[in-house]
Amino acid sequence: MLRLTELLRDARERDDGFSIIEVLVAMTVFAMIAAGVAMGIASSLYLAHGSRSREVAIGLAQDAIDKARTSSNLFGVTDATDSLTRNGVDYSVKQTARWVPTSGTANACGSGGGPLAYKRVSMTISWTAGGRGATQSISMNSMVAPTTSVTAANLGTIVVSVSKVDGSGNQGVGVTIAPNASNPNGAAAITSTIGQTDVTGCTYALNVKPGRYDVTLTKPGNIDDGTSSGSLGAQTARPSTTVTVQTNQTSAANFNYDTALTVVPQWSDPDQSTTAFTPPTSSPVSLRRKTADYGPYAAGTTAQVFPYADGYKAVPGTPATCLSVDPENWTTAKGTAVAPRALAQPQAGTNAVKAPVQIVTVKLASKTDNALTATTVAPAANSGDPGCATPVTYTFTGLSNQTATIALPYGTYSFQSGTVLKIIGGIVSLTLSSGTPSATPAAGVSTSSGKVLLDPRRAP
């Protein structure tokens, strides 16, 4: 009994137990195990949620494909995008529809050649995976054939494709198709209704009798790029092209047609942009893109042009017949050429497109003179001026005080001054003075042997 009592007393008096280190190690091990279990549970929930979302997406794609297959009007099955919410998840449903002709080349309107055979419908369903922010998607494709032939035997189809500057379809364009006026070659009037272009920029004329047809577009505020065969080289609001329809074939009429860009061409000296000058009675501006020139347009008037993303180079006059007006044509190295490019975009609150010219001060031959003519002449040898194929004359009126500050395109000129007799229909009749006006030498202005050189390289 005494022995047991001693043992119990010794047990109470000892302070043996878990150390703080042992406790921390135990807690760390427990935390690691708990974290692993929690991650496993979270991953399981995420995978389960992702699996359910994928099943929903597949169901949405199948429903859209079935809707296309059962459509009574396959021409109405076009590109489309929709947004749907299922079980708290937002889905984006993108449908792409392309006609495939018998040639097997698929495109938006099916203009690859041969009769229209079937439509390839692609569905892409995308959604954001919950909690992780990752976008996931599934795709599904199907071929949908029309219930009957698109065009009856021995007839043809005209496919009209209208694209914007970015390559997307131009929707809502009115289309008229009529037998070619000069050479119909068997074409007959189309009695069926030709709808406006759809979201992909397409419309169709079915069961067309073989022959030659003119296809014309109309849409308020739109303009073409000048490549349509009926208006080649001239941007127009009503472009047209001619197509030939053959038996059991598809003919394509392709256009680039978009909302017109409004510009106001101007003459401007790049080095003296704030200096006032007297413009000639006619101050044309041509807009050049690559090697194509559009215009010329009268400076200060509003013009409608095709909205190329990279804009136009503005050049005074008509560069096709006078190389001098374009600074890029000057080759002799006398300094830095004036940058001629002016993008078709708003400048200082306007849609000003500035064509570079040279401001020059001229002293008239007589104190009574009130008009001046400047005519391009053959440039001096080695001057660097590429010259003009045909002479161009600019006329300035309303001058006074024997001195005039005018602006001219670059080149070599001879000056004459006089008084105005009459102006009829914009044509000015002058009585010329016997003397010769003189130009004040300045940066870009030099005189020699009665000729005045206006140099874009600013050689003094």
From TrEMBL:
Protein name: Prepilin-type N-terminal cleavage/methylation domain-containing protein
UniProt keyword annotations, A-Z: Cell inner membrane, Cell membrane, Membrane, Methylation, Transmembrane, Transmembrane helix
Disordered: annotated segments: 219-239, 437-460
Membrane topology: Single-pass membrane protein
NCBIfam families linked: IV_pilin_GFxxxE (TIGR02532)
Biased composition (Polar residues): 225-239, 437-450
Homology family: Belongs to the GSP I family.
Species this chain originates from: Curtobacterium citreum
Compartments reported by the entry: Cell inner membrane
TM region(s), chain numbering: 20-48
Lineage top rank: taxon: Bacteria
